[in-house]
Write a structure and sequence with these properties.
Length: 79
Amino acid sequence: MKAIVNIFLKEGVLDPQGKAIHHALDVMNFEGVKDVRMGKQIVLELATDDKEKALKEVQQMAEEILANTVIEDYTIELV
């Protein structure tokens, strides 16, 4: 089973990379982009098929090491 963890800055936290991407899109004449937020994605290959166990483990990983929960939020998708 795979777990996909998407990590992104919380609302209100400055995102300089997002601002740089947004500026580059403006310069390249891509219209209609109101805002850009930069994030990261971590894909984990898990040795279990138990979705409940996998979700608990990945949540613990995200809370303890993968995300800085003071300034970042995350989502988990099991596939």
